[in-house]
Amino acid sequence: MGKIDEIRDRIDKIDEKLLELFNRRADLAIKIGKEKSKRNESNHFHVPHREREIFERMKRLNTGPLPAHSIESIFREIFSATLALEKPLRIAYLGPETTFSHQAAIKAFGHSSVFEPASSIESIFSMVERGHVDYGIVPIENSTEGVVNLTLDCFVDSNLHISDEVLLGINLYLLSKTGNLDDIKEMYSHPQPFAQCRSWLNRHAGGIEQIPTSSTAVAAEMASKHKHAAAIAGKLAAEFYDLKIIAEKIEDRAQNTTRFLVIGKEPAKKAKRNKTSVMFSIQDEAGSLLKILQVFGRNEINLTKIQSRPLRNRSWEYLFFVDFEGHIDDPGIDKVIRTVSKRCMYFRVLGSYPWNG
Ligand SMILES: C=C(O[C@@H]1C=C(C(=O)O)C=C[C@H]1O)C(=O)O
């Protein structure tokens, strides 16, 4: 037997053990599920903080060579498959299939979940509110293009909690049926990806008409139907729509990342490092925002983001969205929130959730 065959034989033996262990683990999780239903806790079949504890313990114990992020994705798939034995988690995302939102949803919940494409960010919120799905995943900001205002606006009319965040590295591909730039007369994509590769497009495809679509998946579908059309989309779309790659990684910034939020009905329990998002409006008078920010500053709370949006019913008045380090169950944070909320006309905690950055 050659060296490779001998090593493959050893791998086969390990795989047999893994298979047995995966199933023994699943049996135990089923037992926990039965205990939960005896105690009428079936609505808590998914326990994100327990999953997080397992991730953190496994990463601590890990001696490599597998990196921490690979350990996390392997365990994510184990949790997803285990939950699906009882009832798969249902997740709404901005569809259709193969969008970056779809990829973020898979990253957050694993392949054994059921993914429900929604036609708009508003409908993701309403699908969660109506209990049609367990969670929704919504884009909130991109490192090149900034904030997704539509998502901020949806929080105004909703009581849902942010329970997690997901960071997804975005690589953009120019795709077409032939894979040849000379064939292309028009290009399709969502306005965000067009903006994320503006300089590349100016340099290499300046004369080609750019046509906006509601998603990168719709753009890929257009490109799959017409020889002279190209799409800017992700690799998943290339595979799904059987398109050839004209150019890869055409985003202007190498670290192009989109941050997504997980929204649900339950607040998240405290993790090792947490972030809190709040939304508030204040009196239209000199120094009122400064006074609020000083409360955070005096209490040494690190702000990670501040964003304003016009109030829809009053011109030139604003709603502020602030993210900061810490969890509302931390004693210091709780005190700051009470002080700040007294000084605001309107104040709401959107959620405290694990900091994944
Ligand atoms: C088994 C449980 O239920 C689910 C499955 C988990 C797992 O596979 O380890 C962890 C948390 C829950 O989402 C549990 O609550 O411990």
TrEMBL record:
<dbReference type="InterPro" id="IPR036979">
    <property type="entry name" value="CM_dom_sf"/>
</dbReference>
<feature type="domain" description="ACT">
    <location>
        <begin position="277"/>
        <end position="354"/>
    </location>
</feature>
<dbReference type="InterPro" id="IPR002701">
    <property type="entry name" value="CM_II_prokaryot"/>
</dbReference>
<dbReference type="GO" id="GO:0046417">
    <property type="term" value="P:chorismate metabolic process"/>
</dbReference>
<keyword id="KW-0963">Cytoplasm</keyword>
<dbReference type="InterPro" id="IPR002912">
    <property type="entry name" value="ACT_dom"/>
</dbReference>
<dbReference type="Pfam" id="PF00800">
    <property type="entry name" value="PDT"/>
</dbReference>
<protein>
    <recommendedName>
        <fullName>Bifunctional chorismate mutase/prephenate dehydratase</fullName>
        <ecNumber>4.2.1.51</ecNumber>
        <ecNumber>5.4.99.5</ecNumber>
    </recommendedName>
</protein>
<comment type="pathway">
    <text>Metabolic intermediate biosynthesis; prephenate biosynthesis; prephenate from chorismate: step 1/1.</text>
</comment>
<dbReference type="InterPro" id="IPR010957">
    <property type="entry name" value="G/b/e-P-prot_chorismate_mutase"/>
</dbReference>
<feature type="domain" description="Chorismate mutase">
    <location>
        <begin position="1"/>
        <end position="90"/>
    </location>
</feature>
<dbReference type="GO" id="GO:0004664">
    <property type="term" value="F:prephenate dehydratase activity"/>
</dbReference>
<comment type="function">
    <text>Catalyzes the Claisen rearrangement of chorismate to prephenate and the decarboxylation/dehydration of prephenate to phenylpyruvate.</text>
</comment>
<feature type="site" description="Essential for prephenate dehydratase activity">
    <location>
        <position position="258"/>
    </location>
</feature>
<dbReference type="GO" id="GO:0009094">
    <property type="term" value="P:L-phenylalanine biosynthetic process"/>
</dbReference>
<dbReference type="InterPro" id="IPR018528">
    <property type="entry name" value="Preph_deHydtase_CS"/>
</dbReference>
<keyword id="KW-0057">Aromatic amino acid biosynthesis</keyword>
<keyword id="KW-0456">Lyase</keyword>
<keyword id="KW-0511">Multifunctional enzyme</keyword>
<dbReference type="Pfam" id="PF01842">
    <property type="entry name" value="ACT"/>
</dbReference>
<dbReference type="InterPro" id="IPR001086">
    <property type="entry name" value="Preph_deHydtase"/>
</dbReference>
<comment type="pathway">
    <text>Amino-acid biosynthesis; L-phenylalanine biosynthesis; phenylpyruvate from prephenate: step 1/1.</text>
</comment>
<dbReference type="Pfam" id="PF01817">
    <property type="entry name" value="CM_2"/>
</dbReference>
<dbReference type="GO" id="GO:0005737">
    <property type="term" value="C:cytoplasm"/>
</dbReference>
<feature type="domain" description="Prephenate dehydratase">
    <location>
        <begin position="90"/>
        <end position="265"/>
    </location>
</feature>
<keyword id="KW-0584">Phenylalanine biosynthesis</keyword>
<keyword id="KW-0413">Isomerase</keyword>
<dbReference type="InterPro" id="IPR008242">
    <property type="entry name" value="Chor_mutase/pphenate_deHydtase"/>
</dbReference>
<dbReference type="InterPro" id="IPR036263">
    <property type="entry name" value="Chorismate_II_sf"/>
</dbReference>
<keyword id="KW-0028">Amino-acid biosynthesis</keyword>
<dbReference type="GO" id="GO:0004106">
    <property type="term" value="F:chorismate mutase activity"/>
</dbReference>
<dbReference type="InterPro" id="IPR045865">
    <property type="entry name" value="ACT-like_dom_sf"/>
</dbReference>
